Amino acid sequence: MSAKPKIAFYEFTSCEGCQLTVVDSLQLYPELLEAVDIVRFREAMSEMGDDYAIAFIEGSCSRPSDEAPIKAIREKAALVVALGACAHLGGINTIRNRHDLGEVRRFVYGDKAEWYDTYPARPISAVIKVDAAIPGCPIDRHEFVRTVKRLLQGRAPELPDHPLCVECKLKENVCLYLRGTTCLGPIVRAGCDAICPTYGDSCEGCRGLVPNPNIEHLKEVLTEHGLSVDQTLAKMTQFLTYQVMEMEAAGHGDPQPAH
Amino acid sequence: MATPNLRIDVHHVTRVEGHGNIVVDVQNGQLKQCDLEIVETPRFFEAMLRGRPYGESSHITSRICGICAVGHATASLRATENALGVVPSEQTVLLRKLNFHGEMLDSHILHAYMLVAPDLLGVGSVIPLAKSAPEVVLRALRMKKLAGDLCAALCGRHTHPIAMTVGGFTHFPSREQLGELRERLIAMRPDVEATVELFTQLKLPAFERDTEYVALRAKGEYCYIDGEIASSDGGALPLTDYRKVTNEHLVRHSSAKRTHHMRESYMVGALARFNINFDELHPKAKSAAAAIGLKPKVTNPYLNTAAQVVEIVHCSEDAIRLCDVLIKRGLTWEEPVKPARLSGEGVGACDVPRGTLFHNYVIADGLVTGANCIIPTGQNLSNIEGDMRALVPTMLDRKPPEITLALEMLVRAYDPCISCSTHMLNVRFE
Amino acid sequence: MVTALKQTLIDPSIYLPTYGVVRNVRPMTGMEKLFDIALPEGMSLGHKPGQFVEVSLFGVGEAPISICSSPSRSNGGFQLCVRRAGDLTGLLHTLTPGSPIGIRGPFGTGFPIERFRGKDMLFAPGGLGLAPLRSLINQVLDERSDFGRVIILYGARSPAELLFTDELAAWKARGDVEVHLTVDRGDENWKGNVGVITTLFPKVEVHPRNTVAVTVGPPVMYRFVLMELLGKGLPDGSIWLSLERRMKCGVGKCGHCQINHLYACQSGPSFSYAQIKHLGEAL
Amino acid sequence: MNPMIIPKAALDDWVRLLRSSYRVVAPRPLHGQHVFGEVGSASEFDLGYPTSVLPPKKYLFPAREDLLKFRTDAQQVEATIDGPRTVVLGVHTCDMHAMQLLDRVMATGYSDQHYLAHRNKTTLVSVECLKPCTAGSFCKSMGTLSTPEVFDLHLTDLGDAYAAEVGSDRGAALLPGLKAARPFADKDTARLNRVMSEKWPRFPLRLEFDVTELPSLLSTSYDSELWKELGERCLACAMCTNVCPTCYCFNVMDEVDLTLKSGKRLREWDSCQLDKFATVAGGHNFRTARAARQRHRFFRKGKYQTDAFGLLGCVGCGRCAEACLVHITPVDTFNELYRRQHQPAAATPQGG
Ligand SMILES: Cc1cc2nc3c(=O)[nH]c(=O)nc-3n(C[C@H](O)[C@H](O)[C@H](O)COP(=O)(O)OP(=O)(O)OC[C@H]3O[C@@H](n4cnc5c(N)ncnc54)[C@H](O)[C@@H]3O)c2cc1C
Ligand code: SF4
Ligand code: SF4
Ligand code: SF4
Predict the structure, then answer these.
(1) What's the pLDDT tens digit per position in A127-162?
(2) Which residue range(s) make up the domain with D160?
(3) D231, D281: one domain
(4) Which residues of chain A have a CB within 8 Å of the CB of C87?
(5) CATH of domain C113-242
(6) Closest-CA residue in chain A for B51?
(7) Residue D241 and which of B162, B391, D75, D76 are 20 to 30 A apart at CA?
(8) CB contact A153 to C (< 8 Å)
């Protein structure tokens, strides 16, 4: 790509923390503004360009009426990048997918529940084809910049496919299992520089599972370290609900979700 | 010459967090409709918390909002701690306050420089500003970076903090880190002064409408965490009585709930805090207020941004003080305080950048069974609409784009965080 | 033998490539292009058939590529036949004559051609496997009188994917090379054999004691070709193949190419079947 | 050169002295573990440490290291070979054996100048191990409980002082200027002998057979069912190889800056336990099964390196055993293979 590529940011169901992280990455890489031409970024600008090559989509698709605008972005953009866990995996929003949604709506909106349109939250890739994803809740600003560089080079961005433990060990953190807690590090995709274990908290899986995770045996490790079945499930469904439910469906021979 | 008919339909206000639309309908000079519509997807956070281990609450609710994530996490932790009888250590309280200043600075700088300043300088965003006034943009980025680094040193990162947990922290900055942050905060003073200077020059629109102001208040400090709920109309209530202040109800055009207290609506946020807690501001912040021309009680909502600038001065100075205190005390790697019980109900409240935030949990056997979060922007929505209803009739002789801009700037002045505000609800505790 | 290029590896870093220049690019099929590369003045690659170089495009990375030209026809440079398979090879395909290109090598042992002299040669490349074998075939043909019969059994997926068709025709036209081609799927113009490469083996009779077979192709091909060759009575030591593995350094350090205890980049990639038949990870 | 005595009270002076010409690194306590890091004074480190998370290998072969820097808009590329002169204080003898292996690997065939440059700039001060460091270590069984010849200076803790044996000129160069250091006296020799003779009984032999049998044991265990059993448990997290002092597999990648005009080529530790280690373009993976990867790992440790370099690939440091969440350990694995071969009937799945 020789000319400055035009890029646009869109957001669906999310906290906009990933876009905020994009703004933050300017603090470290002001030259980003030289490298790309941002034509749409509602959180930060009023100009609304409609002519763009790369669309970054933040947020999950969580109601039927989100689908048309998402498809419209796909029509326009040469490349669609899922920005952050909500777009990449469905993210935190998918916690509710394990509940009865009618009941969830009533719980939150009482007798006005029917005013609000919703369905199980899903990643953007369940609605349209996405060309790349930047995982994480929120995204890692260095990874965002790495991805932009790959796109500028005309290359498909590549995610690390090794587990978090690799990065965690290289940082010489005390393994949380040795500190008496538990961690999803062995089955979760690295790339965040093991920021959570580094700050003393267990990996919650916001970057998604590695290819071929040995979940069965990790569950045994969790049990060995005193987690109940409920606690294990809670751990596995903070960010990974959509992936886990897909695997359950596949495991039970049920058809994959429609999208 | 009055405009007999006017239709304004701003589809997705820009430079605010989340999705909101402004709809104004004037027929024959009569204001028929004047709404701020919240079209954000409902996210059902309260429902998502149910059945999950209490330790996850602060991490899940920090995902309500990427901008005031530290605020949500803190309010959530305070609610859980109150429910489970956890009294955090003095060091924890100090670190949380310092962390809060980091977030307050980050958010206010973002709002003042990147979201509001473009309006005042007549451009659409900071991007053209980066060309026309690079020193202003670089200053903002520089200050924001320090705010972010402050949070990162304490809790790993500002958006969705990591090291904050029930009863304390799981990671601590080193003495050297604190010392370095302190030096950098001191070195930032000229940037803070330049910010005050910038906002003494920029002209914010004139518009007065007296309303009720609500903020947290505590003796001896400019309160951001805990305290009591104070109203400019007089009186204060303990945090556990937050429902008597918020009185939530739903309206059709919004996925966010509305609130009212003594009057039809009230305002929370920097301006409300300024009006209620002015006496507790750092002296330098008081001088900054004088320089900008702010004196309580301020009733022009556009000046919320100016109040934020005053808070930038306060927070950076108080952060320096907190660093000094922490360095002097010496930091210890404390284990988080363990809960005294695994069941109970608790309320946590913080004054986050956009105003007062409440979290309220019921916990049984370590699992959350009921949750309620009331977000500042939700409390402000009725007040914004009240302002709009007062403002539009005074402007009917202007051109529609001018009216639209004035309305957009008004909404933006509140620094609304619309994605946050769709998480409130009336909760049935089971 | 330390060649000029290999010498550059020794100092200051074995990972430092030397700039060559692309002299010519020739599209071969939809997926492969032939690159003709010149080294700086006074430098020679000095390779043996079966060796490879590490090709660098700075900013994207490095990839091992077999040298497909024969040492006997160096012409001041060498040739690589590259399939577009990903990032690096994709970018390589966009290069035009005059483009700089980083080269390290040559690496690997290559085929021990001295030991092949006097023997009948049976070449059995599959698909892109003809690229590394072309180097050996052309050297054999340039020293034709040193060898007995020369038989080439070449298979590709479709007629459009056959590589070096002009050279195949020329070899056939010489009269002293037996060339048999096959494709997995034919098209309307294809008159030749249809079927996988093993369908060609019954067409040729060989003297098992006096024949060396060399086969290069995708991993799945080897098992079947080996069965044919062993079926013809060739001893393990007379069957040669090339084992490609992931490689990051080319110099026996990075560990990716290890086949049991052997580093493919150092002990191979050319191996006799006798060397690897006991290795669980070879085939 | 005769051995010297360095009083412990002089350690701080020594560190300060060394810091004037070197970067000084040593095992620093960190949250209940020890991590090699730069130190400024003696109070910051502990030479009696049990073990370190990562081995001191990281100073010779960093986890992430630049190899080249280049421009993409001009023909400009150069090797990046630098790094400070470093003294590593407190290298355990097992890690010394590991470095001896790395020295051979990196100088065999093509020499890896990046490693060798670090090596030449590094002075290794080893310490005599006086008690086993963790439950997982089995140095005595592996024959790595005494330092190999490659040390520069070797310290033995005599209580209030260290006996310092000089192994090279580089090591000797650390002592001049340290006024408190003095030559050995007779009573020091007696003390040293006593410390040394008391040390050995403290270390158990944990392999159930002599280590010289290991290569042949492995060669007859290639098709053991045990690999499958380990493969089922293994999480493929690569902690075992990342903490190993003798592992050196790496990946190479390019990184460019945002202008795309300049960049660097760097290498990063890789691991044969990871899914993609042996995957080539097109997706073919030559070592798909975790069982095959575990086998490869243990064969490298117990046989391949010995065949190729004459040194064992495992030095018995026990780090991988401490790190592995599913308790796959070299001792248990080797012993289990041995048991299965020698009492096939009684073979039981490995515990854990
Ligand atoms: C000894 C040898 C000789 C080869 N000869 C030829 C040849 O003559 N012509 C030809 O077209 N191809 C040849 N290959 C294959 C070629 O190296 C790969 O197609 C190439 O590395 C793909 O790189 P890429 O960046 O384009 O692909 P990508 O798919 O982008 O690469 C993916 C990653 O896998 C690695 N990778 C993938 N395949 C291999 C591989 N086989 N070896 C090492 N790393 C790999 C790359 O380094 C990269 O990091 C040979 C490989 C080997 C080992
Ligand atoms: S803390 Fe988590 S990521 Fe780190 S090594 Fe332990 S399990 Fe792996
Ligand atoms: S540490 Fe254990 S679980 Fe992880 S890869 Fe090594 S053997 Fe497998
Ligand atoms: S294999 Fe394990 S015990 Fe052996 S040297 Fe490596 S880390 Fe230490």
Answers:
(1) 999 999 999 999 999 999 999 999 999 899 989 999
(2) 4-202
(3) yes
(4) 155-156
(5) 3.40.50.80
(6) A234
(7) B162
(8) yes
* Domain membership flag for residue B248: yes
Distance CA B114, CA A25 (A): 14
Q: How far is Cα D308 from Cα D303, in angstroms, rounded to an integer?
A: 9
Domain boundaries, chain A: 6-152, 164-250
Partners of chain B (3+ Cβ pairs below 8 A): A
Chain D residue whose CA is closest to C246: D280
When CB atoms are compared, the residue of A45, A107, A138 closest to B14 is A45
Residue range of the domain that includes B406 = 6-41+394-429
For A93, which of B43, B141, B250 is closest by C-beta distance? B43
pLDDT score for C69 = 95
CB B154 within 8 A of CB B106: no
Q: What is the pLDDT of residue B50?
A: 87
Asked if residue B420 lies in contact with residue B68, where contact means CB atoms within 8 angstroms, the answer is yes
Q: Rg of the Cα trace of chain D?
A: 22
Same domain for D174 and D256: no
Say whether both D133 and D230 belong to one domain: no
The CA-based diameter of chain C, rounded to the nearest angstrom, is: 56
DSSP structural state of residue D285: B
Determine the average pLDDT of the residues in B9-37: 70
Q: Is B48 within 8 Å of chain A by CB?
A: yes
Say if ligand 2 is within 6 A of residue A84 CB.
no
| A153–chain C nearest CA distance, Å | 9
Using the mean position of ligand 3's atoms as its centre, give its distance from the Cα of residue D323 in Å.
8
Q: What is the ipTM of this complex?
A: 0.90
D216 domain-assigned: yes
Distance B26 CA to ligand 4 centre (A): 79
- Domain positions in chain C are 2-106, 113-242
Residue C87: pLDDT band with limits 50, 70, 90: very high
Between A43, A92, A108, which is nearest B46 by CB?
Answer: A108
Domain boundary among D202, D235, D264: D202
Ligand number, closest to the Cα atom of C243:
1
Residues B319 and B333 both lie in one domain: yes
Q: Most D CBs within 10 Å: which of A31, A36, A170, A224, as the mutation test of the D interface? A: A170
Chain B residues with CB-CB distance to A16 below 8 A: 17-18, 65-67, 419
Residue with structure tokens 């339909």? B9
Query: What is the average pLDDT across A190-204?
Result: 95
- A174's tokens: 């005390």
Q: Give ligand 3 pocket residues (Cβ under 6 A).
A: D 234-240, 273, 323-326, 328
Q: What is the pLDDT of residue C1?
A: 57
| Among the bound ligands, the one closest to the CA of A176 | 2
Q: Does the CA dihedral D162-D167-D170-D173 come out positive or negative?
A: positive
Which residues have any ligand 4 atom within 6 Å of their CB? Answer: D 243-246, 301, 314-320, 330
In this structure, the answer to whether residues B354 and B421 fall within a common structural domain is: no
> What is the Cα B259 distance to its own chain's centre?
16
Q: Cβ(C86) to ligand 1 under 6 A?
A: yes
C-alpha torsion D11→D15→D21→D27, nearest 10: 120
CATH topology of domain A6-152: Rossmann fold (3.40.50)
In chain D, the number of structural domains is 2
Residues of C in contact with A156 (CB under 8 A): 87
The whole-angstrom separation of Cα A52 and Cα A229 is 47
Any atom of ligand 1 within 6 Å of the Cβ of C83? yes
pLDDT tens per residue, range B273-317: 999 999 999 999 999 999 999 999 999 999 999 999 999 999 999
The residue ranges of DSSP E strands in B293-342, in sequence order, are none
Per the prediction, chain D carries an average pLDDT of 93
- What's the pLDDT tens digit per position in D10-68? 999 999 999 999 999 999 999 889 999 999 999 999 999 999 999 999 999 999 999 99
Torsions phi, psi for B89 (to 5 deg): -70, 165
Residues paired with residue D254 on neighbouring β-strands, in sequence order? D265
Domain C2-106 adopts which CATH fold?
A: Elongation Factor Tu (Ef-tu); domain 3 (2.40.30)
Mean confidence (pLDDT) of chain B: 87
3-state secondary structure of B32: strand
Q: Do B33 and B72 reside in the same domain of the chain?
A: no
